Hints:
Layout: H1 9-30, E1 39-40, E2 43-44, H2 46-59, H3 75-85, H4 91-95, H5 101-111, H6 114-125, E3 131-134, E4 154-158, E5 161-172, E6 179-186, E7 194-200, E8 206-211, E9 223-234, H7 245-281, E10 283-284, E11 287-288, H8 293-321, H9 327-356, H10 363-373, H11 380-398
Parallel strand pairs: 3-6, 4-6
Antiparallel strand pairs: 1-2, 4-5, 5-9, 6-7, 8-9, 10-11
Amino acid sequence: MTTAPSPNPAATGRGAEIAARVERFVRDVVIPYERDPRRDAHGPLEDLVVELKERAREAGVLSPHILPDGDHLTQRETAMVLRKTGLSLLGPLACNTAAPDEGNMYLLGKVGSAEIKERFLKPLVEGRGRSAFFMTEPAAEGGAGSDPSMMQTTCRRDGNHWVIDGRKAFITGAQGAKVGIVMAKSAEADGAGACMFLVDLPDPAIRIERVLDTIDGSMPGGHSVISIEGLRVPADQMLGEPGEGFRYAQVRLSPARLSHCMRWTGACIRANEIAVDYANRRHAFGKPLIDHEGVGYMLADNLIDLKQAELITDWCADVLDTGALGTVESSMAKVAVSEALMRVADRCVQVMGGTGVSGDTMVEAVFREIRAFRIYDGPTEVHRWSLAKKIKRDWRDKA
């Protein structure tokens, strides 16, 4: 496990200034859109997302985690900024820091060639399109989920192209996306291994079979089951080198897990603000709810869990800023933060009673989103299993 250095005061000062601007924008401009009817069962509709991004562009907070020269903020600065975008479920969409785009931008910035960055990354940074990451596969077919080595989707060389066939599942935002990152396992005799490819969307060879009905509903396009039949991709649209797909997946997933922790901490901060306001205004049995220990103690526990979520996220961010891959640290952060935020969201609902399970505030929606967060980017149990394996390896090394 890596020991994190102290953060650079100048860098965190820059991050704090950007985060403050983002917070003002989200609270003043984005939150009023939460009642906007432009959404379906799977998430906000495209015209709402486009309008929000335009408002962010006007306010100078579109893609605030990426600097004008194309460099990223440090992970610690990104943590400060993404927590503020998360204060509304629409905030990450407006500021262009939502999943899967934020993680895809990070990956392309780290691995993509100059040509790929110009053609595929630049439009994403500019907010001119959404992206999708095609890795997970249908469980019923024995495909890749938390274990990407089980991947069934194949790619094979055909002249100066690769041909991809397979099926994918739970692909967030595929409906309406302009850019796709497709992961497949090489079917070549030389055993090239897993590969990643950049594709323009839509493509007739990539068909959305259905958009799943899921517990969450904040991501445009929802989560789709996809069939890929005879997709031809030019060789120069391979991301990086053949056989490096699994390694590139970790380049993306470690920071992406942390980004989820950042955004959802912001959402739970806001949900807790609403619950605190409710508990102070609502009276029962002759006094405000907050004066009843059963309620006041729940809000006190929320304060503790939110602070712990912030601290572990910042610690993990500092590790990633050292240049370490941070797989172990991101697993610990994913477990600790997702479980802590589930407790926070659940308490907010409980404090607010019937109002907490209604759509009158964002609290009910946050509860559903956090429940889904405990599963995607690796469920809690997979990360604990991975950490237990490391504990065993470390013990053997010392024995």
